[in-house]
Amino acid sequence: MEEIKFTTGLKVYESAEALSAEDQALLAEAIKQLSFAYAPYSNFFVGSAVRTKSGKIFGGSNQENASYPLCMCAERVALYHAAAIVPTDPIVALAVVARNPKMKMDRPVMPCGACRQVIIEYANRHETAIKLLFGDDCGKVYEMEKSHDLLPFIFDKSFLM
Fold first, then answer.
1. Could you please report the per-residue DSSP string of 113-149?
2. Per-residue pLDDT reduced to its tens digit, 68-80
3. Can you state the percent helix, strand and coil of the chain, rounding each to 5?
4. I need a labelling partner for 68 at 20 to 30 A (CA). Which of 2, 62, 112, 123 fits?
């Protein structure tokens, strides 16, 4: 028998001030996107932003629908926004923040499984790792250096050849 193990980790910063100026700007855009979230059913608001290699920033927010399968997560909205405007400019970083008026978010909210798959697809599309930043309500910022750490045993184009 062979055993395959996977480990990953997060860097935790006490505040966004510890980040580079470009990462601070990305996180600020994700926070701004919270105000554009449409979450009348869950009251769970998510803002996201992506930065491309050229430095452009694109935002996204979650968009709910009474028919839940038709909802769209903030991460995918931001990724699709960037890809629609600058399809050849690789995405190099993604920030996500969430707010729930009923509770304090004292830990990072990680992307759902569908978003993880889409993030990996965009990383593979441009053969780059996407750095991930997650903010909480306490002011901490969590960083994951490589998007592939979100989804270690990926389904990708290698299964379709």
1. HHHHHHHHHHHHHTT---EEEEE-TTS-EEEES-GGG
2. 999 999 999 999 9
3. 35, 25, 40
4. 123
User: What amino acid positions are annotated as catalytic residues?
Assistant: 75
Considering the segment(s) 12-150 as one domain, its CATH architecture is 3-Layer(aba) Sandwich (3.40)
**pTM (2 decimals)?**
0.94
- What is the DSSP pairing of strand 11-13 with strand 91-99? unpaired
Asked if pLDDT for residue 161 goes beyond 80, the answer is: no
Rg of the chain over Cα atoms, rounded to whole angstroms, equals: 16
Which is nearest to 60 in space by CA: 43, 73, 51? Answer: 73
Structure confidence by residue, pLDDT tens digits, 92-116? 999 999 999 999 999 999 999 999 9
Closest CA to 151 of 127, 135, 132: 132
Of residues 28, 104, 103, 31, the one with CA closest to residue 61: 31
